[in-house]
Design brief:
Blueprint lengths: L2 H4 L2 E15 L6 H6 L6 E15 L3 E5 L6 H9 L6 E6 L3 E4 L12 H11 L4 H15 L14 H13 L5 E5 L7 H16 L3 E5 L3 H7 L2 E6 L2 E6 L1 H41 L4 H4 L5 H4 L11 E3 L4 E9 L8 E3 L3 E10 L7 E10 L4 E6 H5 L3 E2 L3 E9 L5 E10 L5 E14 L15 E2 L2 E2 L7
Parallel strand pairs: 3-7, 3-8, 5-6, 6-7, 12-19
Antiparallel strand pairs: 1-2, 1-4, 8-9, 10-19, 11-13, 13-17, 14-15, 14-16, 14-18, 18-19, 20-21
The chain binds adenosine-5'-triphosphate (ATP).
Length: 455
């Protein structure tokens, strides 16, 4: 049997469920509550739907997940500030928690008196507290204020005292909620170092944090909670990466929805403006440098730059997914279609054009560029109004990118050239790094390694 499996469990959480009653229209005043006592509506919010995990003695485990997913609730259940609706929690040994720090402090009592009452809540006898009193005071750096009532303390001083007590009670299990927000930067660094010492001494630790760096430095294992269930569990570096990538995906999807709304509104405004004032005839005619002075149309990013003679003008540009939907976020490996529409002012004078596109990463790295002539050794016969599409497999790695499009004459004169016409983002489930994905096949002693499923 592996040594690890022999190690004793310090915490066993077994099929725990927890809901809260959330009142929707609770009266504010006593009168309102009395008058509308029959109207008090509430909803049952199921916060933990079925959580099971174990923590071995001496192990440090991090709980991560987005706001409101139930991390603090899990910790409060472990501390017994709350009780589960069903399921069981078993903890072996003395528990100390850094949750709701200083909740047990009495404001009129001095710092010293509060150390005694607070440490006794953690189960220490008077003799035990006497022997570690100076260590607690020294760690808090509050020596000169220790006999003042804690109501005269700043919130940072208050937290420092509470933290010093909680970490000096020789707990077997330490539960921590976003602890490293305590005090100033120096004190935070000191707390962090102390935690590492406590861990090295073999204390079991469960920590809730939004700081992946802290989780990776302290924890042996990480548990990602989502929708009241455990979504993933394992080595912090990998779980954190998956979590951060999902958070980025959610953020980008929101951004995409906002952008769609913005574009729709801009198009609407453009149509309204077109309807009320017809563009004067002379503005529609070709004129070198004219495009740079015109207002950018709605399909362009606000930061776009437009150059060219205006003899051919793009009237629409869209990046489409495989279903033909206009998108802002793509994944590495997706097929993307760039659809361009154009208007040619006088096709008889400018019968041929070459269309091209370029992609730049947001830090201006030129990732790619090509045109019709490079790919097909031919030129496009220009119509008064035409459409052109280019389809490509997206091998770009995660990041933000900008698209440039241009159409030029056989002599190289740019008819229309729009830089940063559109922004887009790329996400990926792969973990390779760099600018683009070079799908790699590994061989060991001539034998091809099996590729991960889904790649
Ligand atoms: N006492 C309570 N009464 C009603 N709802 C509660 C109570 N405590 C927590 N909740 C709700 O339970 C959900 C989970 O809260 P919890 O504090 O566990 O989340 P969290 O993952 O720690 O979030 P955060 O990262 O924001 O700290 C939230 O929707 C919260 O509003």
């Amino acid at each position: 049997m592996a040594a690890e499996s022999k190690q004793e469990n310090a915490i066993i959480v077994d099929h725990v469920k927890k809901h809260f009653k959330v009142f929707l229209d609770k009266g504010q005043s006593f009168k309102e509550r009395l008058l509308f006592r029959n109207r008090r509506r509430y909803e049952n919010r199921q916060v933990l739907r079925d959580i099971s995990f174990t923590v071995k003695r001496g192990e440090a485990v991090g709980l991560i997940g987005h706001n409101g997913c139930g991390k603090s609730t899990t910790l409060k259940l472990l501390t017994r500030i709350l009780y589960p609706d069903s399921g069981t929690i078993t903890i072996k040994g003395r528990v100390s928690s850094l949750i709701e720090l200083g909740a047990g402090f009495h404001p009129d009592m001095s710092g010293r008196e509060n150390i005694y009452t607070n440490a006794s809540i953690f189960g220490l006898s008077k003799k035990e507290i006497d022997s570690r009193l100076q260590t607690i005071i020294d760690f808090s750096e509050l020596e000169q204020f220790i006999d003042n009532p804690v109501r005269t303390y700043s919130s940072g001083m208050y937290m420092r005292l509470a933290f010093s007590v909680a970490i000096n009670v020789d707990a077997d299990v330490l539960l921590i909620d976003e602890i490293l927000g305590v005090g100033d930067v120096n004190f935070q660094a000191k707390c962090f170092q102390k935690l590492q010492e406590i861990k090295a001494e073999g204390t079991t630790i469960v920590i809730v944090s939004h700081s992946m760096g802290q989780i990776e430095q302290i924890c042996d294992r990480c548990i990602w909670i989502e929708d009241g269930l455990i979504k993933e569990e394992g080595v912090p570096k990998y779980v954190d990466e998956h979590y951060l990538s999902e958070m980025e995906q959610i953020r980008l999807e929101r951004e995409e929805a906002d952008r769609q709304k913005e574009h729709a509104a801009a198009e609407e405004a453009e149509k309204a403006a077109e309807g009320s004032a017809e563009t004067p005839a002379e503005e529609k005619t070709a004129d070198a440098e004219k495009l740079s002075k015109q207002k950018l149309p709605a399909f362009c990013e606000k930061s776009a730059v437009r150059l060219g003679t205006g003899q051919v003008q793009f009237t629409d540009a869209a990046l489409l997914d495989e279903d033909g939907e206009s998108k802002y976020v793509f994944r590495t490996g997706d097929e993307i279609t760039l659809r361009l529409k154009y208007h040619c002012v006088e096709p008889e004078k400018t019968p041929k054009g070459n269309f091209g596109y370029g992609i730049f990463r947001e830090d201006s790295v030129h990732c790619y560029g090509t045109n019709v002539e490079i790919e097909s050794d031919s030129w496009v016969a220009l119509q008064p109004d035409g459409e052109i599409e280019v389809r490509f497999r997206n091998h770009l790695l995660p990041g933000r990118y900008f698209l440039d499009v241009a159409v030029h004459a056989p002599d190289g004169t740019y008819y229309d050239d729009i830089r940063r016409i559109q922004a887009f983002a790329v996400t990926s489930e792969h973990r390779d790094i760099g600018v683009c994905r070079l799908e790699s096949q590994w061989f060991v002693d001539g034998k091809a390694l099996e590729r991960k499923t889904g790649e």
